[in-house]
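User: Quick one: structure for sequence A, then sequence B.

Assistant: Sequence A:
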Amino acid sequence: MATAGFTPPPYPYDRLGPLLARAEELPGGVVDCSVGTPFDPPPAFVAAAMADPGSARSYPASAGTAAYRGAAAGWLGRRFGAEVPVDQIAACIGTKELVAGLPHWLRLRTPDRDTVLYPAVSYPSYAMGATLAGCRAVPVPVDDQWRLRLDAVDPADVDRALCLWVNSPGNPAGGLDDLAAAASWGRERGVLILSDECYAEFTWAEPPRTILEHGTTGVLAVHSLSKRSNFAGARIGFYAGDAELVAYLAELRKHAGFMAPGPVQAAGALAWADDAHVDEQRQRYRERLDLMVNGLRSAGVDATPPQGSFYLWVPAPGGDAWELAERLAASAGLLVSPGEFYGAAAASHVRIAVVQPLDRLELALERLRTSA
């Protein structure tokens, strides 16, 4: 009898179909705050750069063009004061493919380790990447501020760990981890720290941080233009950190044919070099977060501003996130994500992505107020 192979589970956001249908029934349609897809346009000068045929003619550099990597290095220095050599930076085709693929490539490098540690409340691709690599996906508990509890990691799991994921600011809850402590923890135990920092520009409770401020040995930071520059459809980011690891990954990815398109790299270089458009986007998200927190509170929904990111992490009455998600869809046309998408420990909350413009958010809040 043949052994059953891997069957992909339903993609989390595909499960929202019935709620989407309910929300679309209302006059004015759905206000979709389920997925963190940027609604605002990328800067015009960034989009225009993709029309240059010169960058489309030849195969692009797999590790990234000199211009792209140089712009990323300049941004790390300018934004965080982290001086990272260009040869310790490489491009990726959006960061989701990198997040999902890293466990497989790391296990090729270190086959005697089989465990991926990740926050118990987190982006689902950390656990899925482990599963796709045939690894053990082991969640690490978080505290009441949604920060990793490194003291709670089982020593037996440490001995088998390929890596530990850190996500700060965190998706979905917006917590801010101590990145210096994470780097030290990993170096002391010989565990690679993978720091997903794609929301770094949207840090509210303190200045933006990167783990690279604390050195590059034994750490890898992952950054993206999807959120920072509303460039999610172009699929471009970079990874930076440990010199030996970046060299290994860049060479492996070259063999596998991972190449960010040339026009996208050209546009991405311009995006990393400019901060003005990000300051404008920060202001938009700040206004939307404030509007939603105040509006939800006035409608009797418990909402608290996040320490970082553009998500509201809202506790569901009685701990029933699906019931709250269904109520918001039916009464306000507001589509949100039940917390179980982000781990069993997250099942009592919903995530609201404040990506829609103010007038659409105001429409949802007005519906919610009149339905109460």
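Sequence B:
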Amino acid sequence: MPELTTGQISPAWIAVDWGTSHMRAWAMGPDGSVLAQAKSARGAGTLAQADCESVLLDVIDDWVSAPTPVLICGAIGAREGWVEAPYGTVPCAPLSGVFATAPTTNPNLHVYIIGGLRQTKPAYVMRGEETQIAGFVALNPKWDGVICLPGTHTHWALISAGEVVGFQTCMTGDMFNALTTSSVLRHNANGDGWDDAAFLDAVQDGLSRPELMAARLFSLRAENLLADLSPDTIRARLSGTLIGAELAASKPYWLGQNLAIIGDAPLAAHYHAALKTQGATAMQVNAEAATLAGLRAAFTTLNSEDRT
């Protein structure tokens, strides 16, 4: 069930971050303040297109007693989501003015989904993170450098003069989830704790010899059988091996760069610690604050185009 912080209210508009695994919504006042917030575990990855409107209303129904614009970022705008929102092509501003209108049956719902970003060569795409980048740029208008956005898919975005010049995406989080739930390591990496020293050692190993990643991953299974390696240590070393290999592949994006990390803790903290071992210092940014700032910027763009 969604968690609501308040009952009936009348927001000027509603901001929604609807990712693969969860949804967060904010009722927004006319001055951009947050009047209330709600969340749901009904992520875009679990839904059929026909269910999207009802799932959204489960969360925000108390907020839509009158016609209300709803602005959404995230995976819900993917091809498998509610409606596919087109991509802006880099280099471009993180919010390139591309929106999709979602079909609704409730006359009070006017739903707009923010388009993602794409890069054609090499081919990468992102959805949701463009809004966080836009929020960061709005909060730090003269900042140039690289933003790391860790998650299921981690993006490394080069920012210059308020534009996304290019980016690289790695499936590190997806691989970690698959290995801990569907591979032989699911029997060994099921701890809830963490081993910081093992994580950092594995980061160094993964970065220095990324070609050994597959072999090192199986050795975690073997060490558990032969030396009773703890699940917490296995989990930390697995994460460190994958992140280390990612850092090896992304070295041109972080080496010698001005860096910021936007992501949920503790994953963002793991990336910060991994980069620190290489002498790279990154600004840690609150993900929710960046998302809200980006949604506010997108709503301004939406209004300027007179779509509502």
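The chain has nine helices and 15 strands. The mean pLDDT is 94.

User: Thanks, that's what I needed.
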